Amino acid sequence: MMTSPYVHKLIQQLRAHHNQTNAESMKKYMRDQFEFIGIKTPKRRELLKEFITEHGLPPFAELPEVVRELWELPEREFQYIALTFLEKARKKLTTDDIPFIEELIVNKSWWDTVDLLAANIVGTILQNYQDCIPVYAEKWIQSDHIWLQRTALLFQLKYKHETDEELLYHLIRQCRHSKEFFIQKAIGWALREYSKTSPASVERFVESEHLAPLSRREALKVIQRQVQRG
Q1: For the chain, which has fewer Cβ within 10 Å, the N-terminal or C-terminal residue?
Q2: What angle, rounded to 10 degrees, do the helices at 63-72 and 5-15 form?
Q3: What is the mean pLDDT of the chain?
């Protein structure tokens, strides 16, 4: 895949800071699924800030192309930078961009990219286009792709009082018997986050549903902590 001049400059800047020791440690942490340049998060943010100061952000019209180019690169840091670009533009994104976001969710999939795409990007888009929520949520939860299912469970993560409780519980019921760790964990995480807003409702739901032990444990963490504090 040919890279644009913008991405080419970005590649040069980051790869100049290769650190083999860090790269090996970061790769191991991610279960050897991805290569790394070896740039830790604070340094990556610093380098990206310098790059943006000099070259600017990608024009919005060119954002999908830039993000796809970054997604194709082997080192995971480039996917993190692609996510940063998307986050900076997230308020401009519409439901027309969801097929593109789905591409990212199902390619090079792991929790580190999917969770940010779900909660920060998809969550923002659907909060602005709430009439579309049932269509996409049902589509993703019914899919055979665990990362799309996880997206359905997590896109409301930051909605707090705007959470569609009925929808959240409906989605959880559809995949509560999943043996997938990342689905069980997402169920627990979604419930735990919502318990900060509506603890009594979450507690009733957990007690009335047959959830996996991992999901149940994660869901009740905040509630149990508050009980212990008295």
Answers
A1: C
A2: 40
A3: 97
